[in-house]
Amino acid sequence: MRGQDNKKARVIAFYLPQFHPIPENDKWWGKGFTEWTNVAKAKPLFKGHYQPRIPADLGFYDLRLPEVREQQAQMAREAGIEGFCYWHYWFSHDKKLLERPFQEVLQSGKPDFPFCLGWANHNWTNKSWEAGTRQQKEMTLMEMVYNEDEYRKHFYDVLPAFKDERYICVDEKPLFLIWNPNDIPSAYTFIQLWQQLAHENGLKGIHFVGIQQNIVNTDIHIKDLLLKRIPNQASMLYKRVLDQGFDAVNSRGYNRADLCCRTLWDILFRTLAIRLFKYFPISKCNQRKINRKLYTKEDTLENIYPTIMPNWDRSPRSGKKARIYTNSTPEIFAEQVEMALDLVKDKQPEHQIIFLMSWNEWAEGNYMEPDLKFGHGFLDALRKKLIQP
Predict the structure, then answer these.
(1) How far apart are CA 71 and CA 370, in angstroms?
(2) 325, β-bridge pairs
(3) Which of 99-103, 374-378, 385-389 has the lowest mean pLDDT?
(4) 66-120 residue pLDDT tens
(5) How do strand 10-15 and strand 304-305 relate by DSSP bridges?
(6) pLDDT (mean) for 366-374
(7) Degrees, nearest 5: CA angle 66-75-365
(8) Cα atoms found within 13 Å of the Cα of residue 77, Cβ hemisphere only
(9) 272, 373, 362, 378: which is closest to 14 by C-alpha?
(10) Residues 84, 184, 101, CA angle at the centre, nearest 5°?
């Protein structure tokens, strides 16, 4: 069922469960490593660059603490967010990571706040969190396993969550999101198996959502960038996902928006500096310019769920390699929210879904939690746009 009737859309926020130490991260990145390690040591790379970003109300929290999870849920609820989409790191039956926060939420029944799962189906490498590994050759630490036996084990692992009364449903089916649908060998087979297992276990099915950018960057050449001929490939790319059996697409437009905003400096001089001298000049773009190119007409389709994103700054992980969006404020974010609301206003209420990227991706700069600079500004901006008077 959809959320409260006084909301203009169903906003679901991606939630990173990384903020607690685990043995694997201790081994790979150092004792006690969490995302806060990168966040706290970030440095400004140019005048006016907002780094480091320091959390306010919740501090440098540990997600093993239930009171932190309760406070997060309360903040999200007050802002009009329907629920969290917890990133779910399943590699195989014997290999899972960062599962403790969600399992405690599931088993304790608290917080009493809706949720769903997003399968982060990508390998973990020694560059997954990137900081401190730039000079190392990339190597795989945890590899995804795809086969029918694992699909069955995976289904029964998440079945208790699907049956929880807090689980977010669409058309009375649990919503399950997949990070990279095109990485699954024969995704159609996987989906049909899960649909069968869902019916066998008393569910009406699963509402599968695949994440898809609206452009393939490798299709774009320097000449296209110089002439600002950035195509919209959304129709083709979304269809490819839907044809595999997915019910909907979570559309991502920031790659194309970023290409549209590339300057001559980025296209030529920065590329030459990187290739010839291994030097990374700072690359940045104004957030408002990104917003103007973020969406396409396909985002108004009934089974396409657009994304809102308060900011992007991955420099805590990537240093000078990062692409940085500047001048992101609650007011500019509110403009983006208004655009997204306009995209979904004519859809059926169940499908007026907008994914928020993200609740707490602090090392990527896309987070809603209060910080020392903006306080509750981004939360207040969302609430004012989302909750009808």
Answers:
(1) 12
(2) 285
(3) 385-389
(4) 999 999 999 999 999 999 999 999 999 989 999 999 999 999 999 999 999 999 9
(5) unpaired
(6) 98
(7) 95
(8) 11
(9) 362
(10) 30
* Three-class secondary structure of residue 140 per DSSP: strand
Q: Which residue has the tokens 């700054």?
A: 313
Query: CATH says 10-217+232-253+297-386 is which class?
Result: alpha beta
Place of tokens 């806060």: 36
CA distance 334 to 178: 27
Residue type, 251: S
CA distance 147 to 149: 6
| Strand pairing category for 115-119 and 95-97 | unpaired
Label residues 258-276 b or e (16+ Cβ within 10 Å = b).
bbbbbeeebbeebeeeeee
Contact (CB, 8 A) for 180 and 121: yes
Structure-block tokens of residue 127: 């560059």
Instruction: Characterise 278 by phi-psi region: left (phi > 0), alpha (psi -120 to 50), beta (else).
Output: left
Unique residue bearing structure tokens 């790319």: 237
Amino acid at 167: Y
Per DSSP, the residues of 87-144 read EEEEEETTEEES-HHHHHHHHH--S---EEEEE--S-EETTSS-TT-TTSPP-EEE--
* Cβ(99)–Cβ(91) below 8 Å: no
pLDDT single digits (tens) 8-42: 999 999 999 999 999 999 999 899 999 999 999 99
Instruction: Return the CA Rg of the chain.
Output: 20
Residue 115: in which H helix or E strand, if any? strand 115-119
Q: Which residue from 246, 266, 339, 243 is spatially nearest to 299, judged by alpha carbons? A: 339
Q: Phi, psi at residue 63, to the nearest 5°?
A: -75, 0
pLDDT confidence of residue 129? 63
Structure-block tokens of residue 357:
């990227």
Q: Which tens digit of pLDDT belongs to each residue from 224-234? A: 787 788 989 99
Q: Spell 210-226 as b/e; 16+ CB within 10 A means b.
A: bbbbbbeeeebeeeebe
Residue 290: closest CA among 310, 318, 320: 310
3-state secondary structure of 275: helix
Residue 310: is the preceding peptide bond cis (ω within 30°)?
A: no
What is the 3-class SS of 282-338, one letter each residue?
CEEEEHHHHHHCCCCHHHHCCCEECEECCCCECHHHHHHHCEEEECCCHHHHHHHHH
Q: From CA 193, how far away is CA 97, in angstroms rounded?
A: 24
| Residue 1 C-alpha from the chain's centroid | 23
> Which run of H or of E encompasses 102?
helix 100-108
